[in-house]
Amino acid sequence: ATVLVVARLGGAAAQGSFAQTKAWIDLLVVLGCFGFPQGIVYVTNKLGASAHRLAWHSVADSLAFLPVSWAITFLGTTKGWTGQTFNNGGVYIFASALAGALLVLHGLLRGVYLSRQQGASFALFSILPAITLLVAIFITRGKGYYANQILVSAFVSAIFGVVLTVVQLRCMPVCYAETPWRALFANSTHSFVQSMLMVLQPLLSYALLRAADDYTQVGYLNAGIFLSQGLIVPVGLISPLMFAHWTSRYDAGLLWRLRRQTIRWVMLGIPASLFLAIIAQRVTPLIFGRDYLVASTAVALMVCSVPQALHSRLLAPALHAQGFPGVNTICAGVRLAGLALFGWLLSQSGVSALNAAALGWSVGELLSLAWVLWMMHRLD
User: Fold this and answer.
1) Could you give the CA distance from residue 342 to residue 86 in angstroms, rounded to a whole number?
2) Residue 327 burial (CB < 10 Å; 0-12/13-18/19+)?
3) DSSP letters along 32-72, please?
4) Widest CA span of the chain, in angstroms?
5) How far is CA 213 from its chain centroid?
6) How would you label 163-173 residue by residue, b for 16+ Cβ within 10 Å and e otherwise?
7) DSSP codes, 206-270
8) CB 319 within 8 A of CB 182
9) Are the C-beta atoms of 42 and 187 separated by less than 8 Å?
10) Could you tell me the CA-to-CA distances from 365 to 139, 209, 360 in Å, in that order?
11) Which run of H or E residues covers position 293?
């Protein structure tokens, strides 16, 4: 909804600026969280680690990450990696770095909260940054300053995160058992690598356009990213719940039951892909405005891989919970490599950079699903 509002209020150029700012801050959040949210769920459910102690660790981690976030953003802005010019760079660096650190706190506390609460309140806690960002965009009428708007959203989310976590932990007996650091890092590393590869996917897509200062082309591409990722948001919301459920009990036949549904899912995915591509081709200018008519083909190319992306994302928490997080890590690597290789090859063969990046995105999704299904066949 926020992406749609930005596109409507400011057009493709504003959407491109917003997309690059958000992608950079997403990268900071992934670096700061280091996969710990999933690791926290694992060690609390499987090893009885102290949620109280992990909550304090989360606060310390976010504070320690703040200077690192500032240094990375300063370097990224001066080198042009953030996609932003250095005009008013000091404000951009401060807002981005602080927003990243606050969202790290929200993300870590989200892991602690999930280990205690898996109902509607957790879902609301999860989408709180998006809700507050949408409100901030509406209040400012989309007039740029996206790092500042994300900062406001991050601050509100972090405050609510602390309050909700404190309220939840007060209902539990205080336990300060030693934190199993080795298990925490072992189970967080794969999640960190997966998250890094996933957050690099849109950044690499923007880089394939070969024009870091061309916000309009980035905005067109981000329309496809918006729809393709937006359609899998429901899976992203229930995936942590599925992971928490499957790590809290032993289910020997889980992968076998999921693999039995593979043929049905794949066969349903083919007509679903065609249907989504046709719909996207027609509705893109209706949703974003007539200026986006030139992006309709690129959006359709990206949206057609949504059924395959849904399939892959649904299998990921099951594989992690069954002790095979490495499969998901390689899956994310295959997705990124497919995007980079095919996007570059297509652009070199004469395909427009916009369509090349879009088609490379879908090829990466197809290759990653093929990898997961092949590994599930071997593991079963």
Assistant:
1) 32
2) buried
3) HHTTHHHHHHHHHHHH---HHHHHHHHHHHHHHHHHHHHHH
4) 64
5) 24
6) ebbeebbeeee
7) HHTTT-TT-HHHHHHHHHHHHHHHHTTHHHHHHHHHHHHHHHSS--TTHHHHHHHTHHHHHHHHH
8) no
9) yes
10) 36, 19, 9
11) none
Helix axis angle, 306-321 relative to 325-348, nearest 10°?
Answer: 150
Q: What is the pLDDT along the chain (380 residues), one digit of tens a residue?
A: 888 888 888 888 888 888 888 889 999 999 999 988 888 887 887 777 788 888 888 999 999 999 999 999 988 888 777 766 545 568 888 999 999 999 999 999 888 877 777 677 788 888 899 999 999 888 887 677 788 899 999 999 999 888 888 877 776 556 666 777 888 888 788 888 888 998 898 888 888 886 545 678 888 998 898 888 888 877 877 777 777 777 666 666 777 777 777 888 888 889 999 999 999 999 998 888 888 898 999 999 999 999 999 888 888 877 877 777 788 888 889 999 999 999 999 988 888 889 999 999 999 999 999 998 888 777 76
Name the token pair of 74.
Answer: 């300063």
Q: How many residues does the chain have?
A: 380
In the block, tokens 């320690």 appear at 64
Which tokens belong to 279?
């719909």
Rounded to the nearest 10°, the torsion over CA 262, 264, 269, 271 is 160
Tokens representing 192?
């960190």
Q: Which two tokens stand for residue 215?
A: 């916000």
Q: What is the residue type of 37? A: P
Give the pair of three-digit tokens for residue 189. Answer: 């590393």
Phi/psi class of residue 210: alpha, beta or left (left: φ > 0; alpha: ψ in -120 to 50)?
left
